[in-house]
Structure formats: C-alpha cells, structure tokens
Amino acid sequence: MKNVLITLLALMPLFASAQGSKVVRPLFDKKSIGEIRLTLPAKNWVDALDSMRIYGMGMMAGSATIDGIRYEGVGVRFRGDKSYQLGLKRNPFTIRLNFSDSAQNHQGHSSIKLSSALRDPSLVREVLFYEIAGKYMPASQACYTKLYVNDEYVGVFVNIESVDKPFLEKTFGSSGNAFFKAGVDYKPEGLPACKQNIFGSLEYEDNIECYKGNFEANSASGWAELQELTRILNNDPSKIDRILDVDHTLWMLALNNVMVNLSSYTGNHSVNYYLYRDNSGRFQPIHWDLNLAFGSYKNTGNGSDLELKGLQNLDPLLHADNPYKPLISQLLKEPLYKKIYLSHIRQILEDNFSNGWYEKRAQELQGMIVIPFNDDRNKLYSLDDFQRSLRETIGRKSKIPGIVELMSKRTRYLKDHPELTILPPAITEVNVQGRGKFENQKLTDFRVTAKADHFPQKMMIYYRFNDSDPYAVMLMSEESAGNMPSGTKAFAATIEGKGMDSVLSYYIIAENAGSVSFAPQTYFSKPYSIKLSDLNK
Question: Domains of the chain by range and CATH?
Fold first, then answer.
C-alpha cells in the first residue's frame, strides 16, 4: 500500500492552491481541489436523506461552507437515478444555495451538483469528458471537491456545473425558453397509449401527452415545441436546421461515439442529455451524467452488453440505419451532415487521443486527487483499483475498462476505419481583402477568399456579426487564380457589412466527394474575426 501511494504521489503536479490565502478560489478551478462543508440538523443524516428521497419530501435545510464562504438556509438532497444507492454516505448530492433565499448564490451559481463517480474507479471519466467536450460545444465545467457532512469527511467528489438558469444565461443569453431533460425518474400516471420504451429517442408521437413519459420539463411550457422538433426530425428532416443546432448535435454524437459514452442518446436508452431552445428558435443539446463514459456502460441497444473488443471497435456509424434513433439516422442520411460528423470524429481523435494528450491529462487528474481519495473511508474502490484503472479492467463482474486500455486500441481502430481514411480538402490562404494603398473609396463589404486542395467540390462560409446570433451560411463562388496545382481551387464570397464598426466572425467548410474540412479548426471557440474599419486603414 505504501509503495502504491508513493507511486501516485510521484504523479502529482504542483498545483497552486487558493486555500489559506486571500484569493477566492473559482468554484470550478481545475488546478486545485475545492472544499464543501455541510451542516445538517439530522445526526443520522444518511437515513434522513434516504427517507426524503424515497417519499419525495423535497430537501433538508442546513448550511454550506464552500471554500471558506458560509451560506445559511441551503437545501440538500441525494440525487441521481442509477447512481443513487440506499444507505450509502457516498451518494451524489444536490445542494441548493437558493433554497431559502432566492437570491443566494456562490459566484453566480445557485445549485451545486456533486457526482460520486459511480462505476468509475479512476474518478476521471467525467472531468476528462467535459474538458474535451467543452472544446467543441457548450458543456458544463467539472472539477474536484472534498465533501464534509457534520465535520465528517465523506470523500472526494466531482463537482459538475449544473445545467440551470445561470448556465443557460451565460451560454445562450437566455433561460426562459423551452428546456427539457431526456429521461424521467418516475413516469406520470394516466398517460394515454404511447410508444413503449423509447425514452429520449425523439421519435414522433401524435399525442403530446406521451412526451411527458420520456422527458422532464425544466420550463413552464414548450411541449408543443418539443413535439415540433420530433415531427420535423422524423418527417421533414430537410428543414431540421431551422429548429435544431445541427452542428452542436453532430459534435455531441461524435463525442459520445469516440469516447464510448453509451449512457447517452447513442446507447440503449437515449438519455442523459438536455435540450434548450435558444433565442434563435433552435434546440441546443447539452451532455449530462458522464460517469459511465469510456465504456463503463456497455449496451448500445443492439443485443447484450459489449465486451472490451466490441467497445474498442464500436462502429463510428452506429445506429446510422436505425429508425428508432432518428437523431442519428435522420441526420446522417444527409451527405453533408454525415461528412461533418466524420470530420468531427477525426478532429476529436487528432486533438485529444492520437497525440496521447488524454492519457497525460488523466494521470494529472489522478495525481491531484490521490491523497483525498486514499483518505476516503467510504470509497467504493481500493487505492490499487484506482491506480490500475487507467490501464486495466477493474471488477470481475462489472468489467470497467481501463481508459487507456480502451482508447489506445479504439484510436487505432477509428483512424484505420474506411469512413475516416478519406482524404479531406485542406483549406489554405484564407484572406479578407483590404482597401488598396491608393484607393480613396472605403470598403463597405467583406470579401473573403480561400483555396482548397484534394479536388474540392464546393466551399461554404458561415458568418455572423453578433456572437449571440446563429451563423448564416453562404456558398462561395469558384474563382480563377492563375496556375494552381491539379485538384486545387480558389473560392470567394462577398458579405455586406453592417457599418464601419461591424466585426465579421466566420469560418469556412470545404467539401470534396468524400469528406469535409474546417478552417479554423477551432471555430467553436476561436473563429476568424475581422473589423471592417481595420480593412480600410
């Protein structure tokens, strides 16, 4: 045991800690471990919280001290569905800071969600997945915190940013629109005859009441909008981009597939995701409950649970022909969407897995939490399991794959897959034309030019003038550009400016017969940007 602890301590990076200083620790700081201390009125608080959960009695009032800042009148309860277990201290928690005082919050956050990381002996699945997902689409933040209840150390937990009003306001600039979570803990009684066991698959139902057995409403209204989403998805998919952010959805599906997250839409039950309709009228998908990612849950809905080799060789086009998974099958019927989806898989691999980044990051995360993990008397896995969990399968019955054991071979499998070896066009020489040195007339438009090789068929520019608006799309025209290598073409587009102070944000997609590519690849977080006044200098 001592040798194991020494080995893990050697992995620990030097993390700057805000504890004991005047610096306020950010709630989701990934370089330090937070601390939450709950004071609850019940001496036998586990039984009390179990009882409240079983009988639906709401929350227990108490106090919470978060990284040294105390809050009174908070609400506490056990959360989770399959992750909740009767009689355990180490259950997932919800802490409502605004339980008694609607204005009370910590750094803008009114709700704290603590995950127990059930079926994850490594304790890194959620933090790693959220960190990767956040590079490409809206996603919660996640970090670690130590939890104490009535001065008793309960363990180290994963602190996950709640998908709630503050998250929606920060991410989408609104929070009062249609908002749903796929999956319900308890189905309402008295529902009409509905399709059975479809969960959050987004199949269409004629009776709007049927949706209430498969989705949890987090808004006062919106059932008709959710039904309309399913109607268009299933019956009129050519118009789906009017009501769904297709690119974010393709990212969600690609992330689930690459990282074998089958406790999701991609797996058996089509659960653990949110849908929020933003101000542009499009539903936005948001991941949730990722402790079973990286193959901890193994059922795709096609037969029995997969063995390790099946998880490593999971088809990137899983459910592409499955009518009961329309979010996958209907989107991937469209050739361009299929190419974008596969391009997203390639980028996830290149950015995070082919270069070994994920393994290094997982080791850093484990090194940071080894001491509080070892001190946890309620932990469900031994220190030896924790240490081996990156490279070896843990559990004779549960058979939870080691993350590196899974992803090293999965990365090779996907890189060699015929659908992912098609050479995409490479976009080069992206420029915006400025005013000539001796020209007197100022430019009022943005003229964007670019080249692409590997026989591009077309190029499209996605653009907007306000970060809160959806991107508009324009087909770029093919241009003559003198002598160019065979298979290379030049394209251009002119976009009308909105005044001299207008700032154009944009990215480009080039498409050939078998694939697409993006420029810049960081378009989600860092698209190209140019100010019209700068072009006139």
Answer: 25-166 (no CATH), 427-535 (2.60.40.2440)
